[in-house]
Amino acid sequence: MTVLIADDDIALRKLLRDILKKQGYQVIEAANGREAIDAFFGRETPDLVILDVMMPIYDGWEVLAEIRSRCDVPVMMLTALGDDRHEIQGLTHGADDYIAKPFSYEIFVARVNAMLRRPLKEQSAVLCAGDLLVDQALHKVSFKGNEILLNNKEYRLLCFFLRNRRIVLTRDKLLENVWGFDFEGDERTVDAHVKMLRAKLGEAGDQIKTIRGTGYLFEGKL
């Protein structure tokens, strides 16, 4: 498994690299936000990304937003700013975990190992609602045995609906989790994609209910 470390502190980056290699992980390094984005999209997607908040060129929030606009890979935010405000900002903007400097070797290793175990289970799971199935390992959607072809945004939107069935989801919530918090479009983007998703799902698309003035709810039939 591969971990991308993005931090402009050379000494800390080397320390984290050595720790992760001792755990058996492959490591990719980046010294600033631009290198982090280039490294992330320039090769096979890493299994985990560790981002320092305060980096030159693009900071950690900007890199996180770029990653979240295209991928659900686990992201840990790493910063010396150990206060609640930054932790809340990181988690609400799509980070999966947050660790403040300084931190202990044991805590860092435990959190990394936990994050890398979690997505293996989640990404291999089959999401279902009645005859609607999403095989996340194969990235395949089917209804009553017939495969349905979705683009990346439609697929991510459907998975988010399935993971949050019977919960009213605002358009802002969908934009934040499927498109990324810094997406510059508007709520009509969500409506357009939901419309296309319903059409492609056919009968199964009836499970996506419009909540007037708020957003959508996926009924999630058993």
Task: Summarize the structure in words.
The protein is of the alpha/beta class. The protein has helices spanning 10-22, 33-41, 60-68, 84-92, 105-124, 152-163, 171-179, 187-201, and strands at residues 2-6, 26-30, 48-52, 75-79, 97-100, 126-129, 132-135, 140-143, 146-148, 168-170, 208-211, 215-218. Strand 6 and strand 7 (132-135) form a beta hairpin. Helix 6 (152-163) packs across helix 7 (171-179) and helix 7 (171-179) packs across helix 8 (187-201). The longest helix has 20 residues, at 105-124. The protein is elongated and about 55 Å long. It starts with a strand and ends with a strand. The relative contact order is 0.10.
The count of strands amounts to 12
Q: Please tell me how large the radius of gyration is.
A: 19 Å
Which shape, going by the Cα principal axes?
Answer: elongated
Q: How confident is the prediction overall: mean pLDDT?
A: 84
Provide the spatial order of strands within the biggest beta sheet: 2-1-3-4-5
Q: How do the helices and strands follow one another from N- to C-terminus?
A: EHEHEHEHEHEEEEHEHHEE
Strand content: 15-25%
Number of helical runs? Answer: 8
For the biggest sheet, the summary is: 5 strands, parallel
Distance between the termini: 35 Å
Runs in which pLDDT lies below 50 for 5 or more consecutive residues are none
